Amino acid sequence: MTKFVRFSLDKSTPPTAADRHSGVRYGVLDGETISEVPSLFEFDRGTTHGLTSVRLLPPVSPSKIVCVGRNYADHAKELGNAVPTEPLIFLKPPSSLIAHGDKIIYPPQSTLVSYEAELGVIIGRRARNVRKQDWADYVWGYTCVNDVTARDLQKKDGQWTRGKGFDTFCPVGQWAVPANEVSLNSLRVQAFLDGEKKQDGPVTDMIFDLGDILAYVSHFMTLEPGDLIATGTPPGVGAMEPGSSVRIVIDGVGALENPITSEA
Ligand code: MG
After folding, report:
1. Which of 12, 86, 95, 252 has its CA 20 to 30 A from that of 19?
2. CA of 70 to the centre of ligand 1 (A)
3. Beta-carbon neighbours within 5 Å of ion ligand 1
4. Single pTM value for the model
């Protein structure tokens, strides 16, 4: 499995400002060593760095993060929602992105912050009006996403921008894997809170598969290379508290772990 990472040699840069400085590099991770590559889409390896000597960044820098709500029937039911008849799409802002290991900040406006383990799809080339059967031509690869949600604010606001959009509410990574190295239909999406398994659903349980999602979204919005699609969460979502740590695991894709803290 080829593990593509984005990183910086500047370990002092705040996570939410990582895209605003010039030191972003790409690499392939082998064990504890990163070999630099020209971009997420290129495999030619160069200078090496030790994993502990760099600051990992989210593996992609999307122009937008497109999310699918209620895409597993048992998750829709657990929150008392109807199963949708067409994909339910919302956006998270790029300012919500953080990398593996970065802190999820528990916002003072909320008293119910939840994890949502999701398979992340990385777009490989510009996609507009994609036919369902052609979806794979537009996918570069996959990663793990935590669609962190302030559930109380999501309900209170009537729309989801605030509840889904706080800074640090989109952990992604810790690496990205090319699509041709992933056996999509065998994947399971799992979440562990302080080591205890909370979510475990096969991606084949998605109501709308990747063809449905790419066709639906690309018929109203152009997808650009590097854009990220979070494909929905299986049942088992729940509250997490400051001091805890949440780990998203998709065997065959990777793992992503982040601590939760109340400190700003
Ligand atoms: Mg979600």
Report:
1. 252
2. 7
3. 116, 147, 233
4. 0.95
